[in-house]
Each structure stands twice: as structure tokens, then as C-alpha cells.
Amino acid sequence: MAELYSVAVKLMDESFNPLDTPNYGIAIVLNETSIGFCTLDFKRNKFLGLHRFVRIDSEPREKQFSSGPTFRDFLNEVIAAIPWLRNPFKMIKIAFEGKNTTLVPAQLFDPKEKEHYLNFNFSQLTDEQVFCDHLMPLDAWQVYGVPVSIVEATKELFPQSKVVHSSSLLIESVWINYKNRINSPHVFLHVRELLFDLMIFNGRQMNYFNTFPFQNPEDVTYYLIFVMEQLNLNPEKIPLVLMGNIEPGDGLSELLLRYVRHGETARRNESYKYSYILNQLPPQANFPLFNFFSCGL
Predict the structure, then answer these.
(1) pLDDT of residue 120
(2) Residues 6+ apart with CB under 8 A from 281
(3) How far is CA 237 from CA 2, 185, 217, 229, 290, in A?
(4) What per-residue confidence (pLDDT) applies to 99?
(5) Distance from the Cα of residue 119 to its chain's centroid
(6) What is the pTM of this model?
């Protein structure tokens, strides 16, 4: 069978030793079309590398043709390329990146009703399993669905690990890094592939979170300005923090900063050390991934 993936990122410090994985942690963010993971050496408190693989058959084929390649096939090929993923690790954390999530305040949350919460906002697919994450800093629950094919494949490879949602990881990552650094409203914009997450934090309090689809930079700008207007936030005064697939000087950042005067890119978590090889990546890229081990999820 032809390869099911392309290599988007493959960076690893020369000090990495596959025999030392019991002292390492692996943080993984995956979806139906890609998987990315970073490796942390707990002895040195140092990130050693980052890998990202993208499915060549970018459509989730198991929903189209029952005989086509599945997510499990994709994952098996990634493991064949990186066989030490089957080694024992000190810690393994996994987040699923999907667009259908809903936040429920803890006071209103009933775990028996989690399917109803999701169905109220989205048309739930029959092949999804519904989960929920407790966001302790916000005292809220994130409810979301994960395709059964992904649940089964990850349990088979990492049986001791649970799966959380990437938006839960993103929210806690922002909270951890900025809770003591800001005392006024800040807008956080996290760009993914054809989706972006928009958050507004005021000190330790999150006032807004939503995920939007987009096709071009104008879509992102429109949603950002619309939300700020609805919340009576002045784009001339409120700082904008950019993270994810966006860089200073690219078309999207230049357009955004025409409307929002104060912009900056996110910085890496200074609680960790980073291999020099990771300097090839901008600090705002993979922001949630490099903060996974700091989160309580």
C-alpha cells in the first residue's frame, strides 16, 4: 500500500535516546487528517523535538469507502516510521482536535446529559462517542464528540491514556501562561487549518470562547471585529495575541493589524527548556502542544 502520509515537521535533538523513553513524556494532538507530537525529557525538563504527519488522503476515507484506508491505517504507518512510539513512556497525553464542542458552566452541568448538550448545538454523527473535560480554572465543562475510529485506534496504541479536547487544552494553556501577566481584557486568536479559535480573557477570567471556520484572511478579520463590536471592545485599545499557524508579516497578521492596533505573538512557556533544533519553529506555533504537560487535563 502506498504511503498514507506526508511529513510536515520532523525535528529531534541529537541527545534523544529511544532507550530512555521511560523518562520522557509524549504530548499528542491529532485529528482525522493529521497527528503531531512533542517529546519532553523530564530529567532535564527539556523539550527534545516535534513531529507532525499529515494524511495524503486528507478526507476521512472510512466515511466514504468502507474498503479505503482508515485512521488506524494512518496511525500504524506513522508508528512504522517512528517505532519508538510503542516504547513505554513516563507520561502520555492525547488531545483530539475537532470543531464540535460546547462549554457548560459547572453549576448547570449534568454528566448524564452530555449527549443532549452536544446535540443541542450540533448534528451529532452516529459514529462519534461523547466525552467531557472539566476545566478547573474556569469551573466549566467542555463537551465534545470523538469519532469511534479514533477512540479505538488510540486506545489500542496507548491503552493507559485518556483523550481530551484540543480546545480544552488551548483554554488552559492560555490561562496558565497569562493569568498573572494581564489585568485587562486581551483577545487571543489561535489559527488552525481552516478553523480558528477566538478567546477573550480578562486576568484569570475567560469572557468568551468560540471556534469559527474560515477560507481566507478576510473571514478571520470579519469574525474578530464582529465579536469585538458585540462585546463593546475597542480594537484601538484591546491587545491581540496571535498563536498557531500565523506569523508576523504574513497576509493574515498584516490584515488583522490594520484593524487591531496592538498585536503580539504568543511566547513559549518559560517553565521549560527547549532544544536548539526547535528554534526552527516560531514560538507561537504549536502553543497548546508545548503546554500540555502544564495543564491539569
Answers:
(1) 83
(2) 9, 11, 50
(3) 53, 10, 22, 13, 29
(4) 84
(5) 23
(6) 0.92
**46-55/5-12 β-pairing:** antiparallel
Dihedral over alpha carbons 143, 148, 151, 157 (to 10 degrees)? -170
Look at residues 58, 66, 196 and name the one whose alpha carbon lies nearest to residue 127: 66
Radius of gyration, CA atoms only, the chain? 19
* Residue at 125: amino acid letter: L
Condensed to tens digits (0 to 9), the pLDDT of residues 245-293 reads: 998 889 899 999 999 989 999 999 999 999 999 999 999 999 999 999 9
All 3 cell numbers of residue 281? 519553529
Q: What whole-number distance in Å separates Cα of residue 28 and Cα of residue 281?
A: 17
Residue 108's H or E segment, with its range, is none
Q: Which three cell numbers stand for residue 3?
A: 504511503
The three grid cell numbers given for residue 217, joined into one nine-digit string? 484572511
Residues whose CB is less than 8 angstroms from the CB of residue 213 and which lie 6 or more positions away in sequence, other chains included = 99, 194, 195, 219
The distance from CA 266 to its chain's CA centroid, rounded to whole angstroms, is 14
Closest CA to 207 of 159, 171, 237, 239: 171
Summarize pLDDT for 79-130 with one digit per residue, the tens: 999 999 999 999 999 999 988 899 999 999 999 999 888 888 787 567 889 9
- Buried b or exposed e, range 222-242, using 16+ CB within 10 angstroms: ebbeebbeeeebebeebebbb
pLDDT of residue 280: 94
For 28, how many CA atoms within 13 A lie in the half-sphere containing its CB?
Answer: 23
State pLDDT tens for residues 182-203.
888 999 999 998 899 999 998 7
Q: Which three cell numbers stand for residue 61?
A: 476515507
pLDDT > 70? residue 66: no
Looking at residue 64, its pLDDT comes to 44
* Type of residue numbered 42: F
Q: Are 161 and 92 in contact (CB under 8 A)?
A: yes
